[in-house]
Amino acid sequence: MESGQPNSAAAADKTQNSSVPPVEGVAGGGTSYGWVDGGLQASSLGNGAIDPTKIHSADLLHVWSMPSTANVSQQEAPRPLEHVNLLAARNERESFQIALRPKVSWATSGIAGSVQVQCTDLCSSAGDRLVVGQSVTLRRVVPMLGVPDALVPIDPLNSQINLLPGETSAIWVSLNVPCGQQPGLYEGEIFISAVRAEAESRGESLTKSERYQLYKELRNCIDITEPRDYSSSEEMVQRLTSASTTLRRMLALPSFQDCQENNGLGDMMDEDIMNNVAVRLKLSLTVWDFTLPLTPSLPAVFGISETVIEDRFCLEHGTKADHPKAKEYYSDPRLAAYAVPYAPILSSTDAAKNSLRREVEILKSEAHWSKSYFYLWDEPLNMEQYDVICSISNELRSYASDVRILTTYYCGPSGSELAPSTFEAFVKVPNVLRPHTQIFCTSEWVLGTREDLVKDIVAELRPDLGEEWWTYVCMGPSDPQPNWHLGMRGTQHRAVMWRVWKEGGTGFLYWGTNCYEKAMIPSAEICFRRGLPPGDGVLFYPGEVFSSSHEPVASTRLERILSGMQDIEYLKLYSSRYGREEGLALLEKTGVYLGPDRYALDHGPIDVMRGEVYRTCRS
Amino acid sequence: MESGQPNSAAAADKTQNSSVPPVEGVAGGGTSYGWVDGGLQASSLGNGAIDPTKIHSADLLHVWSMPSTANVSQQEAPRPLEHVNLLAARNERESFQIALRPKVSWATSGIAGSVQVQCTDLCSSAGDRLVVGQSVTLRRVVPMLGVPDALVPIDPLNSQINLLPGETSAIWVSLNVPCGQQPGLYEGEIFISAVRAEAESRGESLTKSERYQLYKELRNCIDITEPRDYSSSEEMVQRLTSASTTLRRMLALPSFQDCQENNGLGDMMDEDIMNNVAVRLKLSLTVWDFTLPLTPSLPAVFGISETVIEDRFCLEHGTKADHPKAKEYYSDPRLAAYAVPYAPILSSTDAAKNSLRREVEILKSEAHWSKSYFYLWDEPLNMEQYDVICSISNELRSYASDVRILTTYYCGPSGSELAPSTFEAFVKVPNVLRPHTQIFCTSEWVLGTREDLVKDIVAELRPDLGEEWWTYVCMGPSDPQPNWHLGMRGTQHRAVMWRVWKEGGTGFLYWGTNCYEKAMIPSAEICFRRGLPPGDGVLFYPGEVFSSSHEPVASTRLERILSGMQDIEYLKLYSSRYGREEGLALLEKTGVYLGPDRYALDHGPIDVMRGEVYRTCRS
Question: Which of A313, A583, A597, B63 is the most exposed place for a label (fewest CB within 10 A)?
Fold first, then answer.
């Protein structure tokens, strides 16, 4: 009891006139409302069952928008609904979230109620459009380990979502601007209307037993009316009468009641619902005359576990390098770099070597060969492992002299006398691996908050020999530095790419995007691997876990990676006009990113920075 | 990076033979499964859509039991399924929980899948029964602010529950043993079967448009067959033929397809499903030959805010003391004590005084008058407030000399020189309030962990004058002491009553059971009052928030209060046989309760203590 006020009523009493005892009309102290006599005001909802088609949805639920960097939890508190204003270049995706929370329950079982989310196309005054379903997509934000993360697609033309009592739900809205989109101001609306839950409108349709009863009556009636030789007019009259009676009995079934009442016109039309009772979220998007490059300026490569996919979907391992799809995928301009499929040749059989040689020979004749690299060993720790890299490298370079090899590391080799200190040994790694590595890929964890150490790393590289410095994150660095673990802030996820741009690396590697536990069924529950921080190595999920769709389900973290890479394109544009120093100054002065432990905690600075690039770089 | 191992692959490498590089078959370091190659084994589920009626539910979901004191969160990890063994006296309620978590998803949209929970009656070998729906009830555990708390009734004969991907759900099972139940061992089973979601089997019933088509065809057919004067036999034949054609067209509707196929026998029978594919949870209950008293030994009183109910349900305030229902409720043997409805008479109009006098005169002639008390002022703080209590008391005692007055307090009056120290001033309160208070009700917060202070409080009381010592909890004491806030351990909730029994108070008061924020609609969201710990003052919820039911929804905390009060009956029985010292020793030696900061954290000791009472006290 920090406050020294063990009872609410006593505390409440402070705000009351002292002569009125703090008991309600009836004995039982402290049950009066106390500080806040707020809550819902008297309304027209009445005391009976709530028909959501007859009441404005704003009386039934809270609707408000949240930025893409917000983790909208089930306990997120409502905010006022405001007009959403976004900025996007061509070939950019910009996202935001709609948060929904029931004020009352209007469903009759289990849930608070269902809402329908309907989105219009976004139109410019010139008549150009961003079309719903293509350029505008909606996804439900589904929690993983209680943290909002999985983005499960929903039909943007007609999406019904169930809200639970006392829980905030979120919808992820993405605007994907095509490369050829005309710049301009695009406007649209999203209608959110409380509706009867599907399970309830089911009450209007026939139950199984009613259906079977109908079936029997119909068969019976057919027997009565079936063409045959009639013995008499009387028989025919009797049959007609009998059929008529049976038919009237069928029509009296409760299920046909509303057909009689509303003459089949159905409930109020969708249009009317949207105009009369829906909450309307107005949405404006400024598309500007900058086009993000088709190929990202920063090659960011992400590991995909083939084993995980093969096991879960019962697939066989291995595709030849000359498979037609291989050429299509490697040539895709959106792919900036790829690791050559590579089976370890340590066993050094001639067959293995020949196979690798053939693979290289096929690939090196292709234009996409310049994107390729070999990733031979993850984080070598000792000279024995370094020797393996050198030996494979010699083999590979005999197949193609311009082969690129990437090596990840966070320390120098143990067992060598490379340098007197740990950091110096780490910095001197290029001396050991040259010419057997071209992409020196170091862990951000090594730097910690010491951005100044970057210059020591870069000083050891030979750009004239094609050497590059890339970085990576995985288990480390941990909070508060940028990384992609579940439970970190949204800006912390996005900041990984701000960090890369500020530090000046020319590429980035992430170890895994689908590295959850083994399972043999497509829809098996996703279990994160033990020993890893939650979400580490998992950036998307199998669609089958969430619906009958086979489309993979992205995480909010994957979307924030994309946003971070798009931020790099904005910063690169700005720097191309005003110089890198000015670009760095923009990042700092807007408060977006000052260092690994000093960056925007909320979304505001991001929009300020992007707006400034727009203002200073357009036409 | 505490471990100095920034990358999972590097860590995994420790467990591998050193000469095999830690890359998967394909480049991209560290994506192999690492430490655990566990997960689901290959199974017969195959790669396509899952039909839950054809696969054993144990392949589709985890089912395990949890004690009533467990807070089963959405992240609760599965445990092995074990036989549930419970012990209960007659007139006792004993509860446990069934936790459910999907292993795979078998629904096609939004949820992982639906399960049906079916419970048999519990039967003894002598043929006695505990009947499902009456003595056996099922409730869904619904989170409030993310903490499992609300217990929403479900139909025990046929309950369908939706499971979400990656989330554990819980069902609260209560066994209510009637007073007249024969002692013995009762056995039953609970069948948990994965089923098609209701929304999916809906496909089998008629859509609205099909239904309207049927309606029109039926009307058409009635027009054709309706009795009239027919001009000729030909007309009748034509009409019969036309009717027959129309009827055949109706029968051809897709909705009647399965009626033809399975001849109306429907899907596999429930019995078969239960026997073939359901997970079976075996349940044994030992009913022993002890009957809990109808009237609880410890009068525990709980405030109910009438204002909250009146506002939410649009009710008018006030019921006369001579209302027939008043007598029924006050006379209910399950009610141990009640506060007399009391409008403050400070304004002291004659009308108010006369009304109060009439109320007392009506009540004091009833047998239930002995249960009554007046609660005049909540936590008086100064002599002015003490004077008000005395003055009202004088008025009341002029109406009925045996009136009982309860006063809550956590300190002595300020502005008096009662005693040199704060605690002594608190202890001396009876000297100030005698004879204007009979029930001295003190906050447990005052004691803190100093149980020894109890004797100082009790020493000041005059049992010969009918004076009693009761206690209460509200905002305080806070964690780790026992209280009923959301987010505390289940044993912490139950320990409030263990504490009462150990300290020896003869009654208990809780300030509020429905003191959430104001709302004017029955199904309005429950908002806890600002400034209070979550759950404080709220022990049940309006049913309308969770379903169309008007039945109030209990919290897990309310159930644990009941369990604690039942524990008191066990301890009282034991003490009546072996003495209070032995009862206290039992509480300690089983590890159930040693003090306000030392009590069972898990359920085990509770069953040990109850089992010991059963073993030593039966027959």
Answer: A597
